[in-house]
């Protein structure tokens, strides 16, 4: 590669202060305990839901080069150094999408083997370039690639199968299982991550009326895995 909503409080009636009763002390104490418990639970959930960010990698971008100029893909380190040209040749390379693990880049190549737009793939360093979406007898174009969070599939916009408007299509990263998502016209997809988080919550003390918890000691912790939309 080239380098280039006020509610009445205990002890307050109609806005006039009254001496606090024993009941009010109990109420306040209970409320205080609930507040502390809620705060602790919130802090626990926040800590367990936190995610660890990945390490910043290279930035892939489009630049015009040559005479006549064509759009080609380049990459550079996050500090701007070590610029590498990744694509060459005829046609235009655009709309790069880097895989979640950073090892591959998908892009839309216009003017490919059949003169139309197709989704291509390559390794992060520009090697092993190959056409992903197949050619068609109809004048259709594929563009706007977006990786699935697991890196196994890509969503993209296409005018397949008969060049009658753009829809979202899915294909696996090995070029198989090509299919249309639905009949809703659309383009420029973005594949969201459905997070799975682990939460630790304190259990209640064992109760004679609750056989299911009789084997748990007071204050034990249960770890739950929750799927987040």
Brief overview:
With 229 residues, this protein is mainly beta. The protein has one helix at 22-49, and strands at residues 12-13, 16-17, 59-65, 70-76, 84-85, 92-98, 104-110, 117-123, 130-131, 142-147, 153-158, 167-172, 179-185, 196-202, 221-227.
Tell me the structural class.
Answer: mainly beta
Counted by DSSP, the helix tally is 1
Output the radius of gyration: 29 Å
Largest sheet: 4 strands, antiparallel
Enumerate the spans where pLDDT stays under 50 for 5 or more consecutive residues.
Answer: 1-52, 203-229
Strand content: 35-45%
Order of helices and strands: EEHEEEEEEEEEEEEE
Average pLDDT confidence is 75
Multimeric state: single chain
Shape: globular
**CATH superfamily caption of the largest domain:** TolB, C-terminal domain
CATH class of the largest domain: Mainly Beta
Cα(first) to Cα(last) distance is 41 Å
What does this structure look like?
By secondary structure, this protein is mainly β. It folds into 2 domains: 127 residues, TolB, C-terminal domain (Neuraminidase, 6 Propeller); 36 residues, no CATH class. The chain has 1 helix and 15 strands. The strands form 5 sheets. A 4-stranded antiparallel beta sheet has the order 6-7-8-9, with no helix packed on it. It has a 4-stranded antiparallel beta sheet with strand order 10-11-12-13, with no helix packed on it. The longest helix is centred in the first third of the chain and has 28 residues. The protein starts with 11 loop residues before the first strand and ends with a strand.
């Amino acid at each position: 590669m080239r380098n280039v909503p006020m509610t009445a409080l205990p002890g307050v009636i109609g806005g006039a202060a009254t001496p606090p009763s024993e009941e009010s002390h109990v109420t306040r104490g209970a409320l205080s305990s609930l507040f502390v418990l809620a705060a602790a639970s919130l802090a626990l959930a926040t800590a367990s839901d936190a995610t660890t960010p990945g390490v910043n990698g290279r930035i892939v971008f489009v630049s015009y080069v040559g005479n006549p100029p064509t759009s080609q893909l380049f990459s550079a380190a996050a500090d701007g150094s070590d610029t590498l040209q990744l694509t060459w040749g005829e046609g235009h390379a655009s709309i790069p999408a880097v895989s979640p693990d950073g090892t591959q880049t998908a892009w839309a190549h216009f003017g490919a083997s059949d003169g139309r737009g197709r989704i291509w793939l390559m390794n992060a360093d520009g090697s092993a370039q190959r056409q992903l979406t197949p050619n068609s007898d109809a004048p259709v174009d594929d563009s706007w690639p977006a990786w699935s969070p697991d890196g196994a599939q890509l969503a993209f916009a296409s005018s397949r199968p008969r060049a009658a408007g753009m829809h979202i299509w899915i294909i696996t990263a090995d070029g198989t299982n090509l299919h249309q998502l639905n009949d809703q016209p659309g383009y420029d997809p973005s594949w969201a991550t459905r997070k799975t988080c682990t939460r630790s919550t304190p259990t209640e003390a064992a109760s004679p009326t609750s056989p299911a918890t009789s084997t748990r000691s007071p204050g034990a912790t249960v770890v739950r895995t929750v799927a987040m939309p």
